[in-house]
Design a protein that fits this description.
Blueprint (H helix, E strand, L loop, with lengths): L7 E3 L2 E5 L6 E5 L1 E4 L2 E4 L4 H6 L8 E7 L5 E7 L7 E7 L1 E8 L1 E2 L7 E7 L5 E4 L3 E7 L4 E7 L8 E3 L22 H4 L11 E2 L7
Parallel strand pairs: 10-16
Antiparallel strand pairs: 1-2, 2-3, 3-12, 4-5, 6-14, 7-13, 7-15, 8-12, 8-14, 9-11, 9-13
Amino acid sequence: MQNLQSLTWVGTLNVRPLTIPDVKLIEPRVFRDERGFFSETFSERDLAMAGLMLRFVQDNHSLSVDAGVVRGLHFQCPPHAQDKLVRVSRGAIFDVAVDLRVGSPTYGRHVSVKISADNWLQILVPKGFAHGFCTLEAHTEVQYKVTNYYAPESDRGVRWDDHMLGIEWPVKGSEVTLSPKDRLLPPLAGLPSYFRYEGVTSH
């Protein structure tokens, strides 16, 4: 999984690019005392200070009752493509983003990171990437913001265990819990060219 060192503060946030630079790891500042904690989990201003000019229009919230639940790998194709800002409010996940941008030097490659309620990390998955996760604990709750509304006609995905992706999931295929829809997702080789690489951002 991704090395989590060398984060850089921008306002109330730590922001850094991962090994695929357009995918960002974000850590909001947390203030803790004997009562508990307080944290600004989202700041449009501070994301803009980090060069991430995004307008989120919808919040999604999922609960997975068991560990070993895999959701993904999902994306929406144009004209309804979405950036996603993902966090965990309870439990923990193994989170994955796969580069689907044809012409990208990292096409078909992925980044992965553990996100949990304990480490309070977030991952920003931009347009042109498939996203998915595996729950590491029971009763895990995942919340994510998106920059476009859900459009069922643009709902697409890639098979979670496609061997061409080389993802080392923390669960075996015989133990995974998948939705019927996710079991029918195609491999990367069977996917149309929905996205084109336009270069890496400078941030």
